Amino acid sequence: MTASVVSAGFQTTVQDWGRAGLRKFGVTPGGALDSVSLRLANLLVGNPECVAGLEVTRGRVRLKLDVDRLVSWAGGEFEMRIGDELIPILHCARVSAGAVIEISPKRGGRAWLAISGGIDVPEILGSRATDLRALFGGWEGRALRDGDVLPLGAESELCPRIRAAIPNRISDWSAPRFATKNKFLRVIRGKNWDDDIGAKLLAQKFRVAMNSDRMGMRLEGGEMVSTNPAELVSEAVAPGTIQLPGSGAPVVLLGDCQTIGGYPKIAHVITVDLADAAQLQPLDEVRFELIELEEARDFLRERERDVALFRAGLEARFG
Amino acid sequence: MKISPLGDSAITLDFTDESCDRERLLARALSVAQALEGTNIPGVIDVTSAYESVAVFFDPTRIERDVEEKIRALVASARVRVSRKRRRIEIPVCYDADFALDLARVEAETNLSADTIIALHSSAEFVVACVGFMPGFPFLAGLPEKLRTTRLATPRTKVPAGSVAIARTQAGVYPVESPGGWNLIGRTPLRLFDANANPPALLQAGDRVRFRGIMRNEFEARVKESSG
User: Fold this and answer.
1) Mean of the per-residue pLDDT values for chain B?
2) Are A276 and A185 in contact (CB under 8 A)?
3) What is the CA B146 to chain-centroid distance, rounded?
4) At what angle do helices B114-123 and B103-110 cross, to 10 degrees?
5) Residue among A56, A260, A275 nearest B6 (CA)
6) Mean per-residue pLDDT, A281-304
7) Residue A4 burial (10 A CB sphere; 0-12, 13-18, 19+)
8) Which residue of A has its CA nearest to B37?
9) Rounded to an integer, what distance in angstroms lies between the CA atom of residue A223 and that of residue A226?
10) By the 8 A CB rule, do A60 and A102 touch?
11) How far is A262 from chain B (nearest CA, A)?
12) Using a CB-CB distance cutoff of 8 angstroms, which residues of chain B are in contact with residue A27?
């Protein structure tokens, strides 16, 4: 029960929900940068939501399984094919042993691929997520390479029932798409927000810098001057935190970010919009929109309700 | 104490309005973090302290409306214990020229000889103010004033694992190979982070740390031992 990596693409990693409760050891939460996409892809193939799948960044990825499985994908603008057949986003598809699954970018960003049974790498510190900075978890603590052979887990009881309901390879149902397609990332005020910095953050267009990665998205092209001291006493930071270093180029921290930081925290991208942030690529334009904390939490509650409704629908049909 | 949101899924408790004494603030943050970790507030998923603050992470879909009041009450009842017993950990370090890549730079900046720098570094007692930046990396407070230096203008793209370093008012040890801009003055054979160990980090906030100089042959022997 394996998935062979025929072509690993630009940066493909094994990811799940990431690690919780380990910040005091400096261990970052990590996990899929858009965990909702991975959760929906998992639900579509009958997996528990927290099972490990693949996070595909930009590149062209080809896999070959040695067993019949269900697959699905979610995320950015990609095309997935099994052989010659196009598999639409957020649908469930049957894949036969030996067939080639290919994900290729249309515009790109990131995509998450779920395979029924999940990627069965060992759990390290409570998760199968790859920590690229500390080099552990996932597959040998690194991004996938051509020729890697990944173990697959056992399918759940749900999988055969879902398979039986897909006579024509592709499901005639799909999961809801949550991507906001909003050109703005919504933010709430940070501890070092002031009206002057805030006005600049909200008024300007920024560009994603080339050296952005899973740790953080560096933003160029704006004119920001920090009125705070360049470095403060270090405090906890979190995915979504927008730091403003002395250079004046803000950094939006993402899932693999460090656990503490000393730069001013001017704002925070709301959790729901981290899914959109995960789709931004170098040279893309970014703008910000200010909302209130309670609105941000309401959006998150709303999204969780929508995921719960979809899960309940699947369980009602196949459970 | 000031509470401020750290995004929509965490809050930061900042104690700087309670005292000007850094040691006292660190002790306060550590005891609050410990008190919060020992309780079971619904929805709270992580607690971590850094210097003068504590961050509490939660799942906003699971917390109750009065979570902030609950945390305030818990913090009020957490006693400050400045001189409480902390673990004492000794870190062997080889100050060999092959490892002390920035010793000459530190000599020039501090006007001290290499021997004096090593003597000061290995006789000071440090406190782990927090673990972060990367897994297992200890930020050590207590660097002798005479050893204050600036960071490298251009950070190294690769600092070897185990590198013992100083910068500004702090000391640290790089647990895994990574980029970094601190001055390297030695290397330890100890593993500061092991994802397969429990706990995964050798050091935790509040630990007392001393460095002990070792010779190159002891360093090599201990590296062999820990990799064997």
Assistant:
1) 91
2) yes
3) 20
4) 90
5) A260
6) 95
7) middle
8) A21
9) 10
10) yes
11) 10
12) 135, 200-201
Beta strand B156-159 pairing with B208-213:
unpaired
The sign of the dihedral angle between the CA atoms of A134, A135, A139, A145 is positive
Tokens describing residue B104: 């000459």
Q: Give B59→chain A minimum CA distance, Å.
A: 10
Interacting residues of A158 by C-beta distance below 8 A, sequence separation 6+: A46, A314, A318, A319
**What six digits make up the tokens of B180?**
């970094």
Which tokens in the block code for residue A78? Answer: 């990609």
What is the per-residue pLDDT across B106-152, written as a single tens digit (0 to 9) for each? 999 999 999 999 999 999 999 999 999 899 999 999 999 999 999 88
Residues A169/A179, Cβ–Cβ less than 8 Å: no
In chain B, beta strands by DSSP E: 2-5, 10-14, 44-50, 53-58, 88-93, 126-131, 138-141, 156-159, 163-167, 170-173, 178-180, 183-187, 208-213
List the single best residue of A24, A36, A186 to mutate versus B (max B Cβ within 10 A).
A24
Mean pLDDT in residue range A67-76: 97
